[in-house]
């Protein structure tokens, strides 16, 4: 069975810049999973540092309201990996999931770490590159011309262990 992981679609991240395109793709994929009665699991990153935008008790750490109703399950995490010190593996096992799809934020941290951790735990992993987004850019990393999503997607693709798709490829292969 497949499950969709929707990583860190939270108010402080979504409101950081215009993520309209990414959110639209994520919602489209969620609708496909709902049609197939396949689980949608939202990951919620929380910090215990009060001045963090993802402070556990802040409005910024809340799931993005227009999409949170799609969540069948919500798993809280405190590191970039959705698997590390969470109940995600147990939940996936209970649901009979053997294939996870990765969408959400931030591409080069939580989405990347979760994809690799999922593979390490024996799951088939599909990373939908342009259904991820990041608050960072080429200036953050002082690397002129860096396309973070493309870089991460290419590295994962070249690993020959994680399937990497663009949204259009997802539609061709998996859309109902």
TrEMBL record:
SUPFAM superfamilies per record: Isochorismatase-like hydrolases (SSF52499)
One Pfam assignment: Isochorismatase
InterPro entries listed in its UniProt record: Isochorismatase-like_dom (IPR000868), Isochorismatase-like_hydrls (IPR050272), Isochorismatase-like_sf (IPR036380)
Keywords: Hydrolase
Keyword rRNA processing in record: no
Domain spans labelled Isochorismatase-like: 3-142
Example GO molecular function: hydrolase activity
Similarity field: Belongs to the isochorismatase family.
Name this polypeptide is given: Nicotinamidase-related amidase
